[in-house]
C-alpha cells in the first residue's frame, strides 16, 4: 500500500506528487490555450470525430438554457437509457446514468428510481455550474449509454468500466481500468469507491488493484478475480489514447477509453490535468517513466515506434 511507506521509499519508486505534476508535467508541456479542447467535452467530441476519426459515444442532445428542459424531458420519454453530463465537468461530478425505465420512472445504474422532477433538478444544477470547473455556468450534454464489452462485465458493478491511459507526446506511460462498485454508485470514480486496476502497458494484463488506496484481489461486489483480467482490443486502446496528444496539441494528458460491444474502443473524454491515483493502482511511479519517455521521443518521431518502445520499457510483473 503506497500511502503507508516512507518518503524515501516513495522517492525511490519515482512517485509524482501534486506540485511536481503541476509544474514539471502539466505546466511545462500543456499550453493553456489548448485546455479548452479537453475541458469542453462537446469540443473534444468534435475534434475526435472530424480530425482523428476516433469513435465517441453518440450525442443525443445538449441543454443550454432552462427553457429547453421541458422539451428535453419530452424527448427522453422515448429513450430507455442515456447519460447526462456537464460539458465542463471534472472528476466524474454531475454524471447521471439512466439504464432503464419502469413506467414513468427512470432507473439509475444503482437500481434507484428517479422521475422527471429529479432530472429537471439535476439539469438545473448543471446549468448553474454546480459540477463544472471553476463553478462556471455550464451546459448539459446527453449521450447514449455504452453497451460495454461483455468480457469486462464481471469486473464492474452497476456501471461501465473505463480505461485511463496517461500519455506523454504519443508515448503511453501508465494505464488503469476503473471499475464501478455499489459504493461508487455505479460510477468509475476512485474517490467515490471504484476499484482502480493497474494495467501492463505491453499486454493490458492486471498488475495490481486498489480500492480506497488498499490493495484488493477481488471485486467487492462480483467476486471477480482481478489477476485474470486482460483488457480486450488492447493494442487499439493504446493506439487511440496515444494519438490524442497530437490531436489536441497537449503534451501530457489522460485519455479515458471505453469498450463498446459493437464499436470496440471509443474515446470517452480527455483530461489535461490527470490525477495521480493511477500510480497507486500500478504500485509504481511516473517519474522514471517520464525520463524514459523523453529518451523515446528523442529517438523517434514515428508514433507506431513510440508505442512499441513504450511497451518494451513499461511492461510490468503482476503484483497480485
Give a brief outline of the structure.
This protein is an alpha+beta fold. It is 30% helix and 23% strand.
Describe this structure in words.
The chain has 320 residues and is α+β, with helices and mostly antiparallel strands. It has two domains: 2-56 and 148-313, ATP-grasp fold, B domain (D-amino Acid Aminotransferase, Chain A, domain 1, 2-Layer Sandwich); 59-143, Dna Ligase, domain 1, CATH 3.30.1490. Helix content is 30%, strand content 23%. The chain is built from eleven helices and 13 strands. The protein has helices spanning 7-13, 18-29, 36-39, 41-50, 69-76, 116-127, 234-242, 244-248, 277-282, 287-299, 303-313, and strands at residues 59-63, 82-86, 96-102, 105-108, 113-114, 140-143, 162-168, 171-179, 195-199, 206-211, 214-215, 252-260, 264-271. The strands form two sheets. A seven-stranded antiparallel beta sheet has the order 11-10-9-8-7-12-13. The chain has a six-stranded antiparallel beta sheet with strand order 1-6-2-3-4-5, covered by helices on one side. Strand 10 (206-211) and strand 11 form a beta hairpin. Helix 10 packs antiparallel against helix 11. It starts with 6 loop residues before the first helix and ends in a 7-residue tail after the last helix.
Q: So what's the oligomer here?
A: single chain
Q: Mind telling me which CATH architecture of the largest domain this is?
A: 2-Layer Sandwich
Strand content: 15-25%
| Elements, N to C (H/E) | HHHHEHEEEEHEEEEEEHHEEHHH
CATH topology of the largest domain: D-amino Acid Aminotransferase, Chain A, domain 1
Count of the domains: 2
Based on secondary structure, the structural category is alpha+beta
Instruction: Quickly name the level 1 CATH class of the largest domain.
Output: Alpha Beta
Overall residue-averaged pLDDT value = 90
CATH level-four homologous superfamily name of the largest domain:
ATP-grasp fold, B domain
Share of helix, binned:
25-40%
Shape: globular
Show unreliable segments. 1-5
Distance between the termini: 12 Å
* Strand order across the largest sheet: 11-10-9-8-7-12-13
Largest sheet: 7 strands, antiparallel
